[in-house]
Amino acid sequence: MAQTPSPACCNTPPIVGKGYKPKGDYITVDGMKTYTTGPKTAKQAILVVYDIFGFFPQTLQGADILAHSDESSLYQVFMPDFFEGKPADIAWYPPDTKEKGEKLGEFFSTTAAPPKTVGRLSNAMKELKDKHPDIKDWGIVGYCWGGKIVNLVSQQNTMFKVAASAHPAMVDSNDAKQITIPFIHLPSKGENKEDVENYQKNLNVKNELHWFPDQEHGFMAARGDLEDKNVVTAYEKGYQLILNFFHQHISSTSFTKI
């Protein structure tokens, strides 16, 4: 069920449509270049799993919004470069030709193979937790392909307390059965409605579903046209919803759906 965002979660900064200058820095985590932003004294943190296009300005801006917008619950945010400088070419999407489809398919089965990424994510989290013992609670946010990764690491014995998936790829209702932490889902018009509804029915944890039926797949990350006022409104709303959900649940110890 949707909740009204708390005032603390609605102070998102003005969205920059072009020429965004990230507020954070880059560090190395498990050998991966990693974007980090947010106050170093924050006791809660978010791991961001980008989409297949890697470090795009829209995604970096989103990480900064997550880190700085909830004044009563600021976060340290970390976004590893799982593709190690070799993301997918955004010109491949949408895959409306045989060549584009083949290139995307190869990328998903090699560089972006989920089991490979889950292993790297686990190693990165172990290093981050060792280096930042003062961080008490961790959440995770994923976009598109990253949403699939979020599903796979939000199951039994997860290191996270709350999860978010925006315009998810590879939606599988069987994944939902395994989720053990509060989960917020923000699908776009690019997702199959039946797949999302079946997924939602199988969740046994506290959850929210918010459709963005007029938005393209990827609007909160690399494919978001932030020079379009309609997209900006949806982009801002999406981040507000995630922040509100995290604000409610990241410190919670009760995850079962009421």
Tell me what the structure shows.
With 258 residues, this protein is α/β, with parallel strands linked by helices. It is built from seven helices and eight strands; from the N terminus they run βββαβααβαβαβαβα. The protein has an eight-stranded mixed beta sheet with strand order 1-2-4-3-5-6-7-8. It is globular, with a radius of gyration of 17 Å. Residues 1-9 have low confidence and may be disordered.
Which structural category fits the helices and strands?
alpha/beta
Q: What is the β-strand count?
A: 8
Radius of gyration: 17 Å
Helix content: 25-40%
Oligomer: single chain
Lateral arrangement of strands in the main beta sheet: 1-2-4-3-5-6-7-8
The biggest sheet, with number of strands, parallel, antiparallel or mixed sense and barrel status, is: 8 strands, mixed
User: On the 0-100 scale, what is the average pLDDT?
Assistant: 93
Shape: globular
Identify low-pLDDT runs.
1-9
Strand content: 15-25%
State the helix count: 7
Query: Distance N terminus to C terminus?
Result: 10 Å
What letter string, H or E per element, gives the SSE order?
EEEHEHHEHEHEHEH
Give the structure's gist in a few sentences.
This protein is an alpha/beta fold. The protein contains seven helices and eight strands, in the order E-E-E-H-E-H-H-E-H-E-H-E-H-E-H.
